C-alpha cells in the first residue's frame, strides 16, 4: 500500500528512513530548516523537499500536510516534534503521527499530548514505520524501552488457527504472550491458560520485533480497523 508520508528533519536517521521509504515506493516529502541538508536530500534521494520550519503551519501547508497519511517528525528538538505532530492532527487531520523522542523521559508526555507513536531508538523507529505501512490491522500499542519487544494490538481473524484454542494449547510465534483480551461484547478477559480465544477478540500481545510478521500472518484480521 503506497502512502503519502511527510518527514520533518534531515539528519542521519531521517536520511536513511526516507531512503528506505522511497525504495518501497511511497510518496515522500521532507521538511528541513537547513538549506544545505535540503539540497543533499533532494540530490541524493530525489524527493520533494521544503526548506522551512516543520512546526510552522504555512510550511506544513506548502508540503501538502492536508493530503498526508502520516507525519514523522525526527528533529533534534522534542518540543518541535511534539508541536509538529499536534498541528498535523488538529489542523490538518493527519491520521498517524510518529515522533522521535531524543530524551526517552519525554515519551510518556508526548503520548499523553496526542502523538500516536513515540520512539527513542532508531531501530525501533524504523520498525514501527514499516509496521504502520505494511501490517494492516495491527498496531504497536507500546514499545518496551531498553528491549526489542513491543505490545501489539489487533483483532483475531476468524480463519486463524488460534480460534477455539486456549492460550495454553495454542503455540504463539516466538515467546509471544497475551497480556489482555477484550471480547466483541466489551468483556475484558485477563490471560489464563484455559482462556479460549474467539474470532473478533481484540488482543494485546507482547512479542519480539522479529516475531511481528509471524503474528500478523497467523492471527490478525487484516480488514479490521483499530
Give a quick rundown of the structure.
With 226 residues, the chain is of the alpha/beta class. Helices cover 31% and strands 24% of the residues.
Q: Explain this structure to me?
A:
With 226 residues, the chain is an alpha/beta fold. 31% of the residues lie in helices and 24% in strands. The chain contains 7 helices and 11 strands. The chain has helices at 12-23, 35-45, 57-63, 78-90, 107-112, 122-134, 212-219; strands spanning 4-8, 27-32, 48-51, 70-73, 96-100, 117-119, 138-143, 149-155, 177-182, 188-189, 202-208. The protein has a 6-stranded parallel beta sheet, sandwiched between helices. A 5-stranded antiparallel beta sheet has the order 7-8-11-9-10. Strand 7 and strand 8 form a beta hairpin. The longest helix is centred in the middle third of the chain and has 13 residues, at 78-90. The two termini are 17 Å apart. 37% of the residues are buried.
Overall body shape: elongated
The radius of gyration over CA amounts to 19 Å
Strand content is 15-25%
Question: How do the helices and strands follow one another from N- to C-terminus?
Answer: EHEHEHEHEHEHEEEEEH
Write the layout of secondary structure elements.
Layout: E1 4-8, H1 12-23, E2 27-32, H2 35-45, E3 48-51, H3 57-63, E4 70-73, H4 78-90, E5 96-100, H5 107-112, E6 117-119, H6 122-134, E7 138-143, E8 149-155, E9 177-182, E10 188-189, E11 202-208, H7 212-219
Parallel strand pairs: 1-2, 1-4, 2-3, 4-5, 5-6
Antiparallel strand pairs: 7-8, 8-11, 9-10, 9-11
Amino acid at each position: 500500500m503506497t502512502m503519502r508520508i511527510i518527514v520533518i528533519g534531515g539528519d542521519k536517521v531521517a536520511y536513511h528512513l526516507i531512503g528506505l521509504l522511497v525504495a518501497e515506493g511511497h510518496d515522500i516529502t521532507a521538511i528541513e530548516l537547513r538549506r544545505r541538508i535540503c539540497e543533499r536530500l533532494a540530490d541524493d534521494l530525489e524527493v520533494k523537499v521544503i526548506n522551512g520550519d516543520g512546526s510552522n503551519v504555512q510550511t506544513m501547508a506548502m508540503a501538502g500536510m492536508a493530503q498526508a497519511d502520516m507525519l514523522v517528525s525526527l528533529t533534534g528538538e522534542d518540543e518541535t516534534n511534539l508541536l509538529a505532530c499536534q498541528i498535523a492532527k488538529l489542523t490538518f487531520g493527519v491520521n498517524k503521527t510518529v515522533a522521535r523522542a531524543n530524551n526517552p523521559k519525554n515519551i510518556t508526555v508526548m503520548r499523553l499530548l496526542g502523538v500516536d507513536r513515540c520512539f527513542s531508538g532508531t531501530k525501533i523507529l524504523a520498525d514501527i514505520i514499516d509496521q504502520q505501512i505494511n501490517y494492516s490491522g495491527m498496531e504497536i500499542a507500546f514499545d518496551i524501552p531498553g528491549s526489542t519487544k513491543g505490545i501489539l494490538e489487533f483483532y483475531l481473524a476468524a480463519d486463524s488457527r488460534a480460534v477455539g484454542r486456549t492460550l495454553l494449547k495454542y503455540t504463539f510465534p516466538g515467546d509471544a504472550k497475551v497480556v489482555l483480551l477484550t471480547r466483541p461484547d466489551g468483556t475484558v478477559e485477563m490471560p489464563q491458560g484455559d482462556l479460549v480465544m474467539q474470532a473478533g477478540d481484540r488482543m494485546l500481545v507482547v512479542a519480539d520485533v522479529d516475531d511481528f510478521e509471524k503474528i500478523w500472518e497467523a492471527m490478525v484480521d487484516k480488514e479490521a480497523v483499530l
